[in-house]
Description:
200 residues, mainly alpha, 2 domains, 0% strand, disordered C terminus
Amino acid sequence: MDKKQPHPLFKLATELGPLLVFFAANAKFNLFVATAAFMVAIVAAMIASYVVTRHIPLMALVTGIVVIVFGTLTLVVHDETFIKVKPTIIYGLFATVLGVGLLFGRSFIAIMFDQVFNLTPKGWRLLTLRWALFFLGMAVLNEIIWRTQSTDFWVNFKVFGAIPLTMIFAMMQMPLTKRYHLEPASLEASDAREGDIGKI
């Protein structure tokens, strides 16, 4: 089936909703209850996304799988280390995929971000490099925070630190996307000259 474009508010709710549930549950109960609630919320968000759009974005799917795996380990072993290291795994995985893709001349950022932009091949390469470095930096930052700060501080950073940082970084990429934007009329010509973005 063709995927439908979700309403921006629906997209925001499915992306931020599980994190807000995680924060609220941790504030009222503890990290283990919050982890269980987070797992339920993220599965519900993926189901809702599929029901409404007949599609689950790749980043959301990968994130959901990692959350379920590490959340389950957290609850079974009763060790909060697993859920705390989960963002490091996700960020590191994204950084690795993007970086390895660049080394082999491929730009996977278009797939990860559901191809929301039409860019020239150079634009895709630059955007991929920037996001790979950002994800690497976030992985390092998460490691520093969970290893040196309290659980509550880490949860607050996860909700009120990581999200704003990601949004700010994304907005900082707008000049690049405008500079290398490819009009639909010239997209076919560009593909013929330089190849599909997946063959960069």
